[in-house]
Design goal:
elongated; SH3 type barrels; about 20% strand; 7 helices; Alpha-Beta Plaits; 3 domains; 3-stranded antiparallel β-sheet
């Protein structure tokens, strides 16, 4: 029959191809096993490299946020070298170069699309180099409503993570952080001045009110009672001080200036002082003015206005 020679030829061809595939697999199998071992070794070696280089990097940089990024770079670099070795063992390295060339061409095409991402990475570089804040710093971000108050949780190349005073985590792009006005309460000297406006009526004893306010401030925990601080060429006394801001429409406007040891409990300190001042004013008959409204209702007589 004519079919039998054809089937026999196909069977022989398939058998030869199968034997070639098995032979190739047997020859290639050690390369696959070696590559798997290298992949595992590369991951372990990158971890050890980070652990060993950590103290050296920390002595040279002394910045936790920047140290993290440098150690990540070291880990990725070590793993990349192992990956190149694996591609060479698998005889795939020769195909990798054209891929890189194609990626370069593609990067030009999508460059405009990823411009915001690149901007965030560049901003991260400036944040890490300029050091406007560090991990653990208490900051306030102005220019947003409401202002962001919290602690720096993490600083990466693309974003800054902030833990707010309400224990919420905010992830803010570094480009946005550089555009805003920041108050860093923990850079170098933690002592911070707080201004508390207080108004009293014109009939109240002004001298007595000032003494009461200053006395309450001096008794408050974390409020500095003595000492001096130099800012620029000016020496500031740290003891609580009350100034007269001006004469309002219904009150004498006072301003209490206090210096606190650290900024971590500003709201609690202000609340405590306002409460104690209110209690002492009440005991000493010092009035805190508030607006009064008088409503007059006119009734029209019958027969009029028609």
């Amino acid at each position: 029959m004519v079919i039998e020679p054809i089937l026999k030829s196909l069977s022989q061809t398939f058998s030869i191809e199968l034997q070639a595939m098995v032979s190739a697999f047997v020859l290639y199998l050690p390369r696959v096993v070696l590559s798997a071992l290298l992949l595992w070794a590369g991951w372990k070696v990158s971890k050890v490299a980070v652990k060993r280089s950590g103290p050296i990097v920390a002595r040279g940089i002394r910045r936790p946020a920047l140290i993290r990024q440098v150690l990540k770079l070291i880990q990725y670099l070590v793993f990349f070298l192992f990956l190149m070795a694996i591609l060479d063992i698998l005889m795939l390295l020769k195909y990798f170069t054209p891929v890189l060339a194609g990626a370069a061409v593609l990067s030009v095409v999508v460059g405009f699309a990823i411009a915001p991402l690149v901007s965030s990475y560049l901003s991260g570089f400036f944040v890490l180099s300029d050091r406007p804040y560090e991990i653990g710093d208490r900051i306030e971000v102005l220019g947003v409503d409401p202002p962001i108050n919290g602690y720096i949780e993490d600083v990466a190349m693309r974003f800054t993570r902030i833990r707010t005073l309400d224990n919420n985590i905010l992830t803010v792009p570094n480009a946005s952080m550089l555009e805003k006005v920041l108050i860093n309460y923990t850079t170098q000297d933690k002592r911070t001045r707080v201004n508390l406006p207080i108004g009293i009526s014109y009939e109240s004893d002004l001298d007595k009110a000032i003494k009461i306010i200053e006395g309450v401030a001096k008794e408050t925990t974390d409020v500095l009672r003595r000492g001096e601080m130099n800012i620029g060429n000016i020496d500031y006394r740290l003891a609580p001080k009350v100034l007269i801001e001006g004469y309002g429409s219904s009150s004498i406007d006072l301003l209490l200036l206090i210096w606190v040891k650290d900024p971590f409990h500003l709201k609690a300190i202000k609340s405590h002082i306002y409460l104690r001042v209110f209690e002492e004013f009440k005991k000493n008959n010092i009035e805190i003015p508030y607006p009064h409204r008088k409503v007059i209702i006119e009734e029209k007589e019958e027969g009029k206005g028609k």
